Amino acid sequence: MSREMRLWTVLFVLGGLALLAKGTLTESGLGRLYVKPARTAEQGEVIAWTAAEPMETDARLSPARTVGLWIAAFLTLGIFSYLYRDNVLYKLAESIIVGVSAGYYFVAGFWDSIVAQLLVELAPDFTRAHFRPGFDLTRHDTDWWFVVPLVLSVFLFCKFVPGVGWLARWPLAFVVGTFAGLRLVLFLDADFVSQIRNTIMPLVVYSADGSFLVWSSLRNLGIILSVLACLTYFFFSVEHKGAIGRVSRIGIWVLMITFGASFAFTVMGRITLLTKRFEFLFVDWLRLIGG
Amino acid sequence: MLDFLTTLDRRWIFLMMALAVAIPVLTQATFPEAPTPPTRAVFKAVEDLPAGSLVLLAFDYDPGSAPELQPMATAFTRHCCLKKHKMIFLTLWPTGTPMVDQTIRDVIDGEFADLSLKYGEDYVNLGYRPGNEVTIKGVATEIRKLYNTDANGTSLDDLPLTKPVRNLFDTKLLLNVSAGYPGAKEWVQYGGTLGEIKIGVGVTGVQAPQMYPYYPDQVLGMLAALKGAAEYEAALGDRYEQYRDPKRNAAILRMGPQLFAHLLMVGLIVLGNVVHFANRRRGVA
Asked: B173-178 and B199-203: which strand pairing?
């Protein structure tokens, strides 16, 4: 056994003992989840459960949710282990995430798109009988317009059938054409015309009572000069020399400040994710804080 | 020393970052938050609406971005409940459905259970519809083209709250919590452009720089990342005494670790530059 392996074995044993001690010797113990009835059938049978606090009167321990909590804790540690070195625990956790995500999107796509958007329109009674019992009871008639998306969807799969693969281009053409038309007008309005309008602002700002607002004026001046400098940097029809070169250099600085702000915001987001995982480990699993 | 710093194993930095985040989490260190103008604008928009106004809450995020965005969703819903606004929930993300459900469960059915808000009268969950921009355009023009039923399959005409609603512009305010595409940008482009609607957004840190150009003309205000969420919670605490306890505010609690992690980051960046220039002077790099 190598020195590193011995070290890890000792660490794992100590970790296990610490967990055992925390679970048996402290009042708060380790992660357990409780549930209480959320919905009850007419015969008195509970048909849905919801999360509950242990002190609530009708709360009971949920073995399934507790196992889920422990699996989540070990998968979190498995992901963290990558920071030391790539290993089998990390690979396992990563594969589970990919598999669960793919499965979730597949199921969500079936129920939310095929059933909720297509089948309910083509065969309302069939959908009610086999997929969505609570679906709008007043709907019985087929909306034949929905045959069009059905046919186009089937055409997409023709890509895999030799000889009729060209049919798959029709739905793609439909999607591309629709989005091009939709985006052209609204994107131009929101991101071009409105953005130009937003940049047309007074360089000298006065308040309602007529006093000069220094910071607002400087802010507006800064925005206008920054926009002009950035636009100059992206104007390639003139060589960036002399005055144009100096202005475009300011444009680069403005862009760099923007990228710096983006990076800082991204760091904030990633630290938040780490904080949440620690909260989960310390509060939900190890119960070190929060009772 | 310089050689030690140059060859420092990055795993020591990971450990330092872990400690910088873990210790404030364990000590639950919190710091005061002062709402900035973009956050105050959203707060004021919700606060100034007459009680009972109809608000559309679009939660376009998934569990991966929930640590940043769930506090915003909770704060928006909490504020609407406090002001007794009517709420319509929807999501453009298939993974957003449990986020909407969780918010309704925690805030409407949990925190405000004593108000006994009735489904269909006080709030409605439209759930998820595929289509991204097309869905937004559908909501902005004729909501029933896409949302003929709510998330439970009940016709919108059978729910008192949604019966008179024809499109987005029948609501008084759109509050969007967004983690990317489709989200805040698309609501501005495909929703806000088609008519007069006040839009307030809460976005992830990654998305915030893309959204600033829309403020304050195309979005009335913005909650940028966890900081924005903490500011909104602070604004709620300033106005409503029961929310001054930091333990009731997830974002304010998470800003403690942010401070120490950022201090560490700044220190490491400065140290990295010092090492770089020192090495350059020595002719090493």
From this structure: parallel
**B181: CB partners within 8 A, 6+ apart:** B132
CB burial of A217-248 (b: ≥16 within 10 Å; e: otherwise) equals beebeeeeebbebbebbeeeeeebeeeeeebb
Distance of CA A15 to the CA centre of its chain: 33
Q: What is the CATH number of the domain that holds B169?
A: 3.40.50.10160
Specify the amino acid at residue A43.
Answer: Q
ipTM above 0.90, yes or no: yes
Q: Domain span at residue B158?
A: 37-248
B118 and B208 in a common domain: yes
pTM: 0.90
Q: How close is the nearest chain A Cα to the Cα of B50, in Å?
A: 26
Residue (of B50, B41, B117, B40) closest to B78 by Cα position: B117
**Residue whose pair of structure tokens reads 């475009």 in the numeric block:** A248
Over the stretch A262-274, which tens digit does the pLDDT of each residue have?
999 999 999 999 9
From the list B28, B154, B188, the residue facing A289 with the nearest CB is B28
**Contact state of B208 with A190 under an 8 Å Cβ cutoff:** no
Tally of domains within chain B = 2
Q: B241 to chain A, minimum CA–CA distance in Å?
A: 22
R_g over Cα of chain B: 22
Does an H or E element contain A56, and which?
none
| pLDDT tens column, A34-64 | 988 877 777 778 877 888 888 888 889 999 9
